[in-house]
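Dear Dr. V.,

Thank you for agreeing to look over these. As mentioned in my earlier message, I'm a first-year student in the group and I'm still getting used to reading structure tokens, so any feedback on how I've presented them would be very welcome. I ran two proteins. I've put each sequence directly above its structure. The first is here:
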Amino acid sequence: MDNPAFGVFEGGGIKGIALAGAAAAVLDSGYRFERVAGTSAGALAASLIAADYTADEMRRQVAKIDWPSLLDGVPGIKIPIFGKHIAFLRGGGLYHGAALQRTWGRLLAEKGVHTFGDLPAGKLRIVTVDLTHERGVVLPDGLEEYGIDASKFPIARAVRMSSAVPFVFKPVELQNRFTGDLSLMADGALGSKFPVELVDQRSETPVFGFRPVDTDDVHRHNDIRGPASLAGAVMTTGMSARETLPRGRFESVLQILVPSRRDSLDFNLSRREALEMFDEGYETGFRFLAESELIAT
């Protein structure tokens, strides 16, 4: 019988593939995630776990996804030299994010999951931020303040909101049905990159935290030549700088630190490379469990 566990998934862009691999190792080691929480790429991984994807099923899906296609450029982005600058200034982001939402909607639908109402209450919680009102929002809980029925709200849309890295992906509009106002929702990492506060750490149920880390030999250098590249540098630094600082201590959280050499926003990887990232994450997770004597029996 599987042992219950909680899972918390940190943001990290494309490194979320490796986090999913580490979570797969936990599943294969005899655990069942009763509740999960995630931010940005962590929300992508957490949603699949919440939909009851098995380790093997996640690995197969990682190998199927056309990862570069998730960067669906806004009009004008392909114009030589100035395309990205024009696209950024016109749309507030280089990519729509619609392709990501469609892809995740399809993945969740394959498990019969479409909205938060298709999951047990409290099983999945996702962090986003309301740029318009300068506040963090936890989904699905926070939807009530906007007059929205959480049970009918698409999880794939929530994931898109949480993953909408400012200047890179366009913010997602959310209309308040009480007032008619539009809010622009964006990357949850601006509010809480590692949302461990969303799970009960006082419970006897173990809490696994999945967090990406840069390998020691990685050297970052941003070639900043205009507004688009500056915006990109701001966001990649925001996503990566905390990985080079001392980690916060959460005594009750079993932190699985998953190394990666890839830039957070580098989606230009082949299916083979994506599978390698997943497998590296799996090996890291399984090694952590074995060394910590946490293999469930």
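The second protein is here, in the same arrangement:
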Amino acid sequence: MGRMRIPPRFVALAGAAAAAAALLTGPTASAAPAPASAPASAPASASVSASVSAVGRICHSALPSQAHDTLDLIDQGGPFPYAQDGVVFQNRERLLPAHGSGYYHEYTVITPGSPTRGARRIITGQQSEEDYYTADHYASFRRVDFGC
């Protein structure tokens, strides 16, 4: 049985909760001044909107049953069937919106009858319900729409 991993979005939510608590309680004597913003050399929105347009959508109800199983395991924190599940997804294809290293993680969607992990994956971002499905091993992605 593999190690249980905490999905990155839970870690991000914990960090956001701590930041919100700090805002509610006000600054402390040990708080450092906010760093000055560096001027932007090029608009990042161009690359982000290009990658967002490369990503389609898929209704949660249209996912294969094995993808539902994977999403359930992610929400439960595992255990996952493969040691590679939960590793950082590098986004080398640059099809997903650009974020820093460690933002995305990948999980196997089991392919019945396949002797290997197969080509299907769920890629998670750090925001709630920021999940992407690929059936072709990262050649294309579809963001999971949980509203349909």
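From my reading of the second output: The helical segments are 8-25, 45-53, 65-76. DSSP finds three helices and six strands in the chain. Does that match how you would interpret it?

Kind regards,
E.
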